[in-house]
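A favour, since you know our structure tokens better than I do. Could you add the entry underneath, on a fresh line?
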Amino acid sequence: MVDDLRSVLDRYHPRGDVEAADVDRLRRLVHDGDPWSRDGPLHVTASALVVDPVQRRVLLRWHARLQRWLQVGGHGDPGESDPWSIALREAREETGLDDLTPLAPPLERQPVQIVIVPVPASGDEPAHEHADVRYALATAAPEQSRAESSDAAVRWLSFDDARAEITEPNLLEFIDRVEHLVG
């Protein structure tokens, strides 16, 4: 099954005015053209917070370009347009975990958060924004996680320790939402 971004947005219920404004911007982007194209100043990415529900931990990945710990995820490959599939592929690639599933059955293909985040300029790439569609995934084999590369370490942290490593308010909100789902 492939979800069109429009149908994802139609099913999604933003929490608060800021998220509603981000979702409205994303709807306009979808209406105006190819939301996945990296040529524009705003384009879509998909990400996930990977959870070990037994030990109540999350897996964060070191992003060398941004010099901070973040969730896993990224851009769609050419021809990809299903944010769920992109988030799942990116999570598998970046963590080495091949058993990833929705954190809970109702969360399959259901974003936990949609947020627009600024991305600073780097090299030849100008500053731009990502409209990030965020999901919650679970693993039953956390010990099998591994870094995708030497400059992209991954590490398991309790929810509280993860919050201590993060400075972005939108990511802190994402972690809070996911922790609430774990119970």
Observations:
- The beta strands are 42-52, 57-63, 68-70, 72-74, 101-102, 113-119, 128-138, 154-158.
- The mean pLDDT is 94.
- The radius of gyration is 15 Å.
- The first helix runs from residue 5 to 11.
